[in-house]
Amino acid sequence: MKIVIIGGQRIAYHLTRSMISKGYRVYVVNKNASFCEELAKRFSAVVIHGDGSKKKVLDQIEFMKNDIVVVLTNRDKDNLIISQMIRRYYGVERVVTLANDPDNIEIFDRLGIHVAVSPTILLAQTIQNLLFVDEMLQFFPMEEGKLAFLRLEIPPTSPSAGKKLKEIVLPEDSVIGGIIRGNDFLIPRGDTSLQPQDRVFVICDPKVQTRVVEALVGA
Amino acid sequence: MKKNTKKRTEGLYIVIVGCGRIGSIIASRASSAGTNVVILDKDDNAFEALASDFTGFTITGDATELEYLKEAKTDRANILLALTAEDNTNFMVATVAKYYFGVNKVVARVNEPENEEIFKEFGVTIISPTMLMVEQIKSFLSSEGAL
């Protein structure tokens, strides 16, 4: 098994260094000649100078089905054709593709490229986590942001502390899926009352998450 | 049966990506034949090549960005032609049209013969200017007894 990194500049450089230091065999394909030279000088990677969207360049890599390929050019159309060639020509399924435009995550998925990463989306999620109150321990957007999974801690000041669940008004597109109290896991029922320090797991539409936080944690 | 065919032709809707030498001629001809045409190019000046009686719509934008194909109502197109000079652009536009927008007939210009295979793998009908030229020249040469 080897790791093949196609295109990209700084991410490709640091990824090569990190993977080599972990003991993987790394192949790099890059259009930029001076970048290739630098990489070949510094790391024991196999470096191929050429356009990764050309079949004759890809043919130089002896792909194995269990290889991991990372496609990192700064143009999504190049990333798409490269990923499709690698899947179809060499039967490699573990392909990680950079989506420079976050809209293309969905497009790539529809075209069979299921592991697309978008730096924009990763940064947006990180920022969103910072914007939320401290009590919100975690926030996982799922299914391209159609669903959010929240983990909240109930502070003593919460408007819901001491109330039964059936008395708490939550937005319609949300549901409490579980409660951790001390070491116990509780399946919530209407009669379950929330206690300070409870950790509550909520599944909701991302649009109503601020209202969920207000209801359970307080404004 | 005949009536049906006629009806379909009248309502035919074509999206063309790339208003270069080939795209502009095809768009102009299709438009004057009464077909509804939308043509996209990322360069605003490219549309100057269209015939003066062109009655279709033009959209300035990079067709590999989803919003422009949406703006072109690609989901309603009967045919999409990806005719830019860049194979990677044509591949993305063609496969997005076929598998995201569900366009029935998708045709792409493929400049590099080595790329024909990947387009075929994804069910895109290809037109190769390189191979068309080669065939023409070959038939000329063989008529001259040189091949």
Description of the structure:
The complex is a heterodimer of chains A (219) and B (147). Chain A is α/β, with parallel strands linked by helices. Chain A has two domains: 2-119, Rossmann fold; 128-216, Alpha-Beta Plaits (2-Layer Sandwich). Chain A contains seven helices and eleven strands. Chain A has helices at 10-21, 33-42, 55-58, 76-90, 104-110, 119-131, 209-216; strands spanning 2-6, 25-30, 46-49, 68-71, 95-98, 116-117, 136-142, 147-153, 174-181, 184-186, 199-204. In chain A, the strands form two sheets. A six-stranded parallel sheet of chain A has the order 3-2-1-4-5-6, sandwiched between helices. The longest helix of chain A is centred in the middle third of the chain and has 15 residues, at 76-90. Chain B has a single domain (11-143), classed as NAD(P)-binding Rossmann-like Domain (Rossmann fold, 3-Layer(aba) Sandwich), CATH 3.40.50.720. By secondary structure, chain B is α/β, with parallel strands linked by helices. In chain B, strands 3-2-1-4-5-6 form a six-stranded parallel sheet, with helices on both faces. In chain B, strand 5, helix 5 (116-121) and strand 6 (125-127) form a beta-alpha-beta unit. Chain B starts with a helix and ends with a helix. The A-B interface holds A 53-56, 75-78, 80-81, 84-85, 88-89, 101, 103-104, 107, 110-111 and B 64-67, 86-89, 91-92, 95-96, 99-100, 112, 114-115, 117-118, 121-122.
At a glance:
Chain A has 219 residues and is of the alpha/beta class. Chain A has helices at 10-21, 33-42, 55-58, 76-90, 104-110, 119-131, 209-216, and strands at 2-6, 25-30, 46-49, 68-71, 95-98, 116-117, 136-142, 147-153, 174-181, 184-186, 199-204. Chain B has one domain (11-143): NAD(P)-binding Rossmann-like Domain (Rossmann fold), CATH 3.40.50.
